[in-house]
Amino acid sequence: MKKKTILHYALPTILLTILTGTVVIAFYANHPRAELLPDTWSYLYVADRIANTGQLVNTWRLPIYPLFISTIYAIAGQGNIEAVSSAQAILFILATLEIYTLAALIFQRRWLAFILGLLVGANLTLLSYVKPLMSEGMGLWLLTSLVLTTLLFMKTFRRRLLWLIAFWMLLLFMTRPEWLYLPPLLFAYILLLASWKHHLRRLLPHALAALLVLYSIVGGYIFINATQNNFVGTTWITNINLLGKVLQYNMQDHSDPSNPQYVAITHMLDSDGKKNIHDPYFIMGRQPAFFADNLSTIAKYSEYIILHHPKTFILKTVPLFFSSLTAYAQESGITTTAIFAHPLSILHQASYIFYSSNGLFPLFALFWLALFCFKRYRQKPIVQIMGLLILICIYGIVLTTTGGYRDYDYMRIYVLFDPLLIIIIWGTLLGGLALLLKKGSGLQLFPAGNRGARTVFLSCCCLLVFILSGCQGDLITPSSNHSLVLVSCHREDRVGLLFMRFDNRGADLATGSMLLHFTTVHSKLHVTMKINLPDILYQQERLVTIDVPTHGSIYWMPTSPVKVVLQLPVTSKQTQATFTMDCHDLN
């Protein structure tokens, strides 16, 4: 019976893998270069600290995603950001297959599981946040793995699965800090279900031990941050988010008037507000003195306002619970003049429509929660599993709307659990439609047997041909010259790093170095640095991370354009050996 069940779901699994892989390849081929966003540099900085000093604890970013970057570097070559982006694509495909498995276990219908998996695997909205070097792709896979493991635990109540759930949660909130408070809620829910099956006494000690281990690790992380980095917390990003909420709700005038420091901060924020400057990151760049000590003063200022005006804060947050569900901001776009542009544009429009359907989530959540309230229905596995998905989604929405202050923030966090929203909304709609058709007319959407399998196979082949129809020419255009090109230069002043991105448009480069020349604010003379280049294969690129010199406790960051002189092997057919480029701080 088990072998028959595996074979029953094998064909849709293979088709879903092929189709999702095709969409991913088409999307990456359309604009193949790795994409670095403003927040990417902080992850690359932590990855550099891990590689050079072994320092896992940092005030800026949590360690799991930088460890992922470091691991890919170790396998594919230092600075190989394209390999990191490709590895995230693999995680996305794995997450899609996990969603298919999750849907199959919930609805017991392979065609419905296949459609829901396809809504995720062909979703360019999700993929647009997976391709750039950001933690969303890894977070999506980790959360999906956590939910799938929890579902298996709910079916078996095995203790080792309980510990595996704890493991996934540790990786998740050490990747995305907003999930730090999920473990108690999740364990409380599954222990409630265990009590109905008379497994509570056996599982409760393990659940408490797992929570103790999880938060002991968090406590140790905070302790190291406090003793080594003089910051009590996991990441100072939470501090700037607090200020972002104050500015979003225009509550900066509600601070303590008896505190001169708070009055000065309010005056500064009001002054920038009159200039239509409301982004805390931009304000931090303009007024660095107010943001010292990892924004500890700013955090206390914001906490005072929120805690002393909870009613105002809650009343302004509640509407966001609903409006944030459809806030849309695609990250990685489609190059309209490149390969696969036409079919990808169609998929993009479809993805946008499906994302808009997230606004229906409150309605479907009320439906399943209402069923959960009745003893007759709450014992049904599908109701219990839907309760789990709704719990996780509501947690994510509440934490995001109370902590995020931009539509872009909502979209980024919702990407992690958007596949769960798809299961809740579209699984309910399609599953309900199937039941109505079956009861009303005796018809089934996908008849069992070979006929149904052939129908699914033919449909997928048609979709596959449609996607491939956008292909015009080769995926890789032969190079017309042989040169190593400096594509971009980015600087991170607060940590004293330069990031230089090189594109190899010529033959493989196995050895090479470069000389950097620039002036600093502390020296009228040029600073000269020799930096070794990593191996760069033909038609690939590398990101070179450079620690700038220090003068006492001050970084000698460039105040002039950086002159780069390449020193390559004499056999290299290099058409240009000198570049001069400004290093821009995009944060």
From TrEMBL:
Main location class: membrane
Keywords: Cell membrane, Glycosyltransferase, Membrane, Transferase, Transmembrane, Transmembrane helix
GO molecular function, one term: pentosyltransferase activity
Membrane-spanning segments: 7-29, 89-107, 112-130, 136-153, 160-175, 203-224, 352-374, 386-405, 411-436, 456-476
Compartment(s) where it occurs, according to its Swiss-Prot or TrEMBL record: Cell membrane
Topology in the lipid bilayer: Multi-pass membrane protein
GO process annotations (BP): lipopolysaccharide biosynthetic process
Top-level taxon of origin: Bacteria
GO CC annotations on file: plasma membrane
Classification via PANTHER family: MANNOSYLTRANSFERASE YKCB-RELATED, MEMBRANE PROTEIN
Name listed for the protein in its UniProt record: Glycosyltransferase RgtA/B/C/D-like domain-containing protein
Species lineage: Bacteria, Bacillati, Chloroflexota, Ktedonobacteria, Ktedonobacterales
